[in-house]
Specification:
Elements: H1 17-33, H2 37-49, H3 53-66, H4 71-83, H5 87-95, H6 102-114, H7 118-130, H8 136-148, H9 152-159, E1 177-178, E2 188-192, H10 197-203, H11 207-212, E3 216-220, H12 223-230, E4 237-239, E5 250-253, H13 257-260, H14 276-286, E6 293-298, H15 308-311, H16 319-322, E7 327-331, H17 340-343, E8 350-352, H18 359-367, E9 371-375, H19 378-385, E10 390-394, E11 415-419, H20 426-451
Parallel strand pairs: 1-5, 2-3, 2-5, 3-4, 6-7, 6-9, 7-8, 9-10, 10-11
Helix pairs in contact: 1-2, 2-3, 2-4, 3-4, 4-5, 5-6, 6-7, 6-8, 7-8, 8-9, 10-19, 12-18, 14-18
Length: 452
């Protein structure tokens, strides 16, 4: 029997020490001696891997300038354009090339999806599939485009290619068969996470249906979510480590549940409950701010998510909210992300509520707040699953749960969406938030006066 199993390795840096040394060495060589197109292309790849997207774009441009007819270098430039959110330029460049390979066809569809040309992305993958050139990653892009359009059954079916496409990792060393969707009474099913913490929260809404069908479900929760999930009615036993696999008949990634359950419409939301200890923690954090309108804020998510910069902002985004009389801001960010408050000159303007907290304690804080205002991170999934009013600040590209337009989502009834009018336009978003907040505070004051 294998030893204790946990599928959650420690977070790693984007590049190894050896890669960082190689990057510095290549930069020094190019600075001192110059170099050819291939070297500039290699430098661009390394910089993109480091998430230094603007620098990577410059290196890729140099490679194309030195070898303008080279398809590989042109594709590298298109990739760099995409990472810099210049999707239209990337699309035009890829379409100018002859006979794209499967990887580049997938990238073309991805860029079309980011411009909200969902039908175009789907057709690009369909055409590639007819020609036998649709790699698994392309089918995932098609799946996301279908999900944006509300075509959930087909979309979730395509999302099953995420493992073959290298877009999600299956935990190893599980001596069990993969679940095939059977809902046999008494079946003992181990459900494992396979994407982000927000995805874990969102997808647990599918667990109660399994329990209602007589399946005995165990959810393998990551440490930040374990206490919260154990105390919440998610329809499953919760544990963080498996010591005896003989207690299970099969296992399934949590992100595969909507596919195997045939999800065609939005199911009921997850309902989470703060623990008693978390509620005590939340009250202790907010106790000194009675009588103020309490807002939880979060400006960034997991830095290891490659497009985290797209959905993230500076804490300064919330500066005007912090200056409003009668309002107290509480940071819901975890760990080192809170250090950005000092860099933004806002350490004294925002209460650090959660830098050392897990999601259970964060839930306890959220329970004491009047509102959560956050960019699209796991915090919005948490707040909405607690039933708290949450204003989700979205990049122009958005994410499939929220569709491409409108200010509500059927996936979370208590959530209101504030979308960028243009890429990077957080100023426009916060201006609309300020207006909505004034109305919210006025309405709250009116309710309090009528009940007094």
């Amino acid at each position: 029997m294998p030893g204790p199993f946990s599928p959650f390795p420690a977070m790693r840096s984007r590049t190894s020490g050896r890669s960082a040394r190689s990057l510095r060495a290549l930069q020094r060589t190019l600075e001192s001696q110059g170099g050819g197109a291939a070297q500039w292309h290699s430098l661009g790849e390394m910089l993109l891997q480091e998430h230094r997207f603007e620098d990577g774009l410059g290196a890729m441009r140099m490679a194309v300038q030195l070898a303008p007819g080279n398809t590989r270098f042109c594709c590298g430039l298109a990739t760099a354009l995409s990472w810099n959110r210049r999707y239209e330029e990337a699309i035009d460049l890829r379409r100018s090339l002859q006979q794209l390979n499967g990887r580049e066809l997938a990238a073309l569809a991805d860029d079309l999806k980011y411009t909200h040309d969902f039908d175009g992305a789907i057709e690009a993958v369909d055409a590639a599939e007819r020609e036998g050139r649709a790699i698994p990653a392309a089918k995932v892009v098609r799946g996301i485009a279908r999900l944006f359009l509300g075509r959930y059954r087909d979309g979730f079916a395509d999302m099953e290619y995420r493992f073959d496409g290298g877009l999600a990792k299956l935990p190893g060393n599980i001596p069990l068969r993969r679940w095939n969707g059977e809902q046999r009474y008494g079946l003992r099913l181990l459900v494992c996470p396979d994407q982000g913490l927000g995805d874990d929260i969102m997808m647990t809404r599918f667990l109660p249906a399994l329990t209602a069908a007589g399946v005995r479900v165990t959810f393998l929760a990551r440490a930040p979510l374990e206490a919260l999930m154990k105390d919440s009615p998610i329809g499953a036993t919760v544990q963080s480590v498996v010591r005896d696999f003989s207690q299970f008949d099969a296992w399934c990634p949590v992100g595969s549940l909507p596919h195997f359950l045939g999800c065609a419409t939005v199911p009921p939301p997850t309902v989470l409950s703060p623990t008693a200890a978390a509620l005590r923690y939340g009250r202790s954090v907010t106790a000194g701010h009675a009588g103020t309108f309490k807002i939880g804020v979060c400006w960034t998510g997991n830095p290891n998510y490659p497009r985290n910069a797209m959905r993230s902002a500076s804490p300064r985004l919330f500066e005007t909210l912090a200056r409003r009389d009668g309002v107290t801001l509480f940071s819901l960010c975890h760990g080192a992300d809170v250090d950005a408050l000092a860099g933004a000159g806002m350490r004294s303007a925002v209460v650090d509520a959660c830098s050392d907290a897990d999601f259970a304690d964060t839930a306890g804080v959220i329970a004491q707040l009047d509102l959560v205002v956050s960019t699209d991170t796991a915090v919005v999934h948490l707040a909405a699953s607690l039933g708290k009013p949450v204003w989700n600040l979205l990049p122009e590209e958005g994410f499939w749960q929220y569709g491409a337009a409108g200010d509500t989502t059927p996936w979370y009834p208590s959530m209101r969406l504030f979308r960028q009018a243009g890429r990077g336009d957080w100023d426009g978003v916060i201006t609309r938030v300020q207006g909505a907040l004034a109305e919210q505070i006025q309405a709250s004051a009116g309710t309090a006066n009528r009940s007094s």
